[in-house]
Structure formats: C-alpha cells, structure tokens
Write a structure and sequence with these properties.
Among the domains are: 67 residues; 256 residues, 3-Layer(aba) Sandwich (Aspartate Aminotransferase, domain 2), CATH 3.40.640. It is α/β, with parallel strands linked by helices. It has a 7-stranded mixed sheet with strand order 1-7-6-5-4-2-3, with helices on both faces. Strands 8-9-11-10 form a 4-stranded antiparallel sheet. The protein has 15 helices and 11 strands. The protein starts with a helix and ends with a helix. Helix 2 runs parallel beside helix 4, helix 5 runs antiparallel to helix 13 and helix 6 runs parallel beside helix 13. The protein is globular, with a radius of gyration of 24 Å. The relative contact order is 0.14. The chain binds pyridoxal-5'-phosphate. The site of pyridoxal-5'-phosphate (PLP) has 14 residues, from helix 7.
Amino acid sequence: MKKQTQGITRSASDDALNLAAERARRYVREIGARRVAPAPGDVAALAGFHEGFPATPSDPQDVLRMLDELGSPATVATTGRRYFGFVVGGVLPAVMGANWLAGAWDQNACLRVMSPLAAELEDVVLRWICEALNLPVECEGGLVTCATTANFTALAAARNALLLKAGWDVAEDGMFGAPPIEMVVGAEVHASILKALSLAGFGKRRVTIVESDAQGRMRADKLPKLTERAIVCIQAGNVNSGSFDPASEICRRAKEQGAWVHVDGAFGLWAGVSPRYRHLTQGFELADSWATDAHKWPNVSYDNGIVLVRDGASLRAAMTQSAAYLASGTRREPMHHTPEASRRARGVELWAALKSLGRSGLCALIERTCALAKRFESGLRAAGFQVLNEVVINQVLVSFGDAATTREVIRRIQEDGTCWCGGTEWQGKTAMRISVSSWATTEEDVDRSLEAMVRIARACGVS
Ligand SMILES: *Cc1c(COP(=O)(O)O)cnc(C)c1O
C-alpha cells in the first residue's frame, strides 16, 4: 500500500491538460501583440506536420508541444483585436473557459438521455436567443455548425411544409415529380443561401431574383406575385454593406399570399438587442424561419450556428430520424431539430456567452463594435478615401481608387500584419471590407489599423 502511494504520479491526462493550459494561456497573453496574418516562414513550417503516418505512439505531452510549436505561430490572430476580415468574432473569456470544460465533458448532444446537460442548455439558450432577437417565443430551433447549415435546415423545413400543404410528402417521396416551389431571393443574396437551396434540391438557377437598391436591400416594390408555394429569402445584415432588407413590407406581402419567409440573419439579427439599432431588425420577427450565427457577432467559439422555425412541427418533420434504439422521451430531443445526430454540445459555449454578457453586455458589444466601424469610416474619409456603403452597423467598404490599386493596398495591408482585411466587389467596384466583430477591439486598435491603412495606401500612390 505504502509503496503504491509513494509511487503515485499525476495521470497522463493531468499532465496533458496542464501543458495545454499553460500553452493556451501564453497564446492568449501574447496574441494581441502578434502580427495578425502569420508570417510566411511560420506558414511554411507547417510542412513539419507532413510526416508519414506515425508507426508508433507519441507521448501526449510531446504531441501537444508539437501542435503548439508548429501550430500556434501559423494561426491567424482572429482573437487578437485587429482582425477585420469576413465577419469573424473573437472569443469571450467565459466562452474559452466553457470550451475547455466542454472538452473535458465530451458530451454528445444527440439525445437528452446521452447528455441531459447538453439538452437542458439548448432549451435555455434557444429561449434566450428568441428573447434577445425579439423573435416569437413559440419558435423551435436547433444548434448547428454554421449559418449555411442553418439556412439549409430552415429551407428543408420550409420545402417540406409547403409541399405537404400541396399534398406531397418530400420526406417519403423525394423531390422528383413534386409540385414546383418558387424560390425568391434578392440580387445581393448571400452565397450560402444559394448553396443551401441547391442542397435542398431547388437548384441555384431556378430562383427568381428581386432587384436590390444601392445598399443591397431587396426592393419590396419589385417582389413578384407570390403564391403559397413560394419561399422568399430575405437578409438581416448584408455581408458587405451590413444593410437590412425591408422585412415588414416583404413579410406583409408574403403573408397575404401564403408564402414562407426565411431570414438569413447570420450576424445582422443581433443588432436587434440594441435599442439604438432595433429599428433595423424590425419586421424580421414576422418571418417563418431564421438562420443566425453565434460564432460571428456574439463572439462564441466555432462552430456555432442557430436555426429557428416558427412552426416547430415543420422543423421536426423535416429533421426527425427514428430507430428503435433512438427512442426518445417526451421533452425536446436535440437530434430531431438538426441534420446531425451525434454532435458536440455547442450549447455550452453559447450559454456561457449569453450568461456572461447578459442583455446589457451583449447590447454594449453590439454598440461598441458599431461605433468602432464608424470610427473607421471617419478616419478613412478624413484621409480622402471613398467609403462605398452607408455604415449602418459594423461593416465598412472602402475603395482606394481603381480595382488594381485597391487590390494592391489590400495585399500589402495583409502582408504588413498590423491588421487584416479582405477584399470584395460591391456594386461593380472593388473594395476592402472592414468588419468590426470582436469584443476585444479597442479605439486604439482602430487608430493603429487606420494608421497602417493610410501609410500603405500612400505608399501605393493613393492621395
Ligand atoms: C457569414 C454569413 C453566412 C454564412 O455563415 P457561415 O456561418 O460561415 O455558414 C450566411 N449569410 C450571411 C449574411 C453571412 O454574413
């Protein structure tokens, strides 16, 4: 007995966790000071991973050391305050911690019996999200990987519901021979909707495209005559301009004619938590389904998408799978609300984010990032550059002149490493996109980034 006690060493798990925690802490401490895009040499060093499949085991600590030493320098510093590419949030402290715990728990959020905790937290966060986003309380939803999957899930539910009304059961009989459904999208529709509708069997070419205005908003007056076999996809927060479709008017017309309205609100819907920006999301609550992301504006870790459907039965009808061994209880079962069965418990981090922020914290995050986008806008205008969009939320589009010059400025900004922004095409013009989405970004970060942008643009001959 005595000998055994003397011989106790910390378990391999404990050692691995301590090492990971120490390395992760260092990463978090240093990330704000590091260049944003990894240095080319650090990316090249990733070649070190390309060994033959190891014939023998490695010590867990050595595995983690290699991961940190080769991996960490080659990450993109999206959590480091000056990343403005795509629409990528940082990660809140409570979320990162919850993510570690969730890793230790390794819960499967498939069925309630597999993880009562995961199922319960999903119930809580889905209700909180409806409250935060001013959506109908009767909505049912699911936690999925991303807005693309959320769009797909909602469109599958819409498709099945509309065709069932027409006497056609898609789940049993498929799409071949089904009565046609008209898909209506705006000219500035996000590519993920097109992918989602192609996955759902509609076909990217078989869409009716409604003209949009100069900010990318669907023009309600250009809507075609709708029927009860139409799905209209509208947008809360254009990925480039941040603009919002006129939801009240579109939903009113669609309702009159029995059409289904789906909202792609990947990030924009979250503007609704702020009294200052709520007017932008007004009317979106009248729709039938919604897709949004928690990994964008609310700064939850990847991956974290959310689908919500007003008529929960439609969602369940489209997503249910049954087998004797999957027998479920009387309460909500996560797997009947998503395309996936086995799934990580992404409600854990989502709960931690919403709990740690609360309504006022979430509101402050939205308002602060919008104010920082405005700071970018004024700085860029003051330097003489052309801002192409009305900066209504956290998105700024700037041109540095002709397409080639703008592209060259973007390339050098990325190379410089002070901050990171991507490019886009906006209404026929090449532009740089700035998306302020991280809780951690400060005014000083914006000023430092502006200084780099102006310095680089001048070096490219932009006056
Ligand atoms: C980001 C975005 C998407 C896609 O989101 P993923 O989470 O990457 O799938 C869809 N629509 C809009 C408007 C977006 O901004």
